[in-house]
Amino acid sequence: MGIELRTADLIAVRDQLGRDPSTRFSVVCRCVPGHPLVIRNAPLDANGEPFPTTYWLTCPTAVKAVSRLESDGWIARLNERIHDDEAFDEAVEAAHRAYAEDRAAELPDARGWGGVGGTRTGVKCLHAHHAYHLAGGEDPVGAWVASQVEPLHSERLVGRVAAIDQGTNSIRLLVVAPGSGPHDVPAELA
Ligand SMILES: [Zn+2]
Fold first, then answer.
1. What was the pLDDT predicted at 145?
2. Residues with CB under 5 A from ligand 1 (ion)
């Protein structure tokens, strides 16, 4: 797989991880402000050692939100559901198989390294599932995590915003600058 990397992304990811990334990667998904959210790592690191985590969550806000779910005990609860709910169990195992196949497409020897979070069954790491879901994987655990943590960043608008009201007899235009009036109220410009 060809990996194209912008210098700005390398710097952003180094900043997010607090160290140099140990493998080649590409950015597969971004947060609304534009910084990397999920990266796709090469299957071998710079020393040629296996790097089983293909999809990695890098946005610190996302990492923190998912860590909160883990510390609230959700890994154990999801594993209980896998134990009790056969359809859910099958869907999670299918996600693990697809994840392993996705990596094997790049490095056939990596087929045996396991699925999401380096396992073939159950849930080990919610960050890995969330990252896989965001990268487009069919992952019921990742989709559930996303439903719990989104939106990650407040969808506060910056710059000027205009609205047009087109009626039968009149057209009205409103231009505001969000947050620039007193008490965070948008200031009306026109
Ligand atoms: Zn983010």
1. 98
2. 31, 59, 61
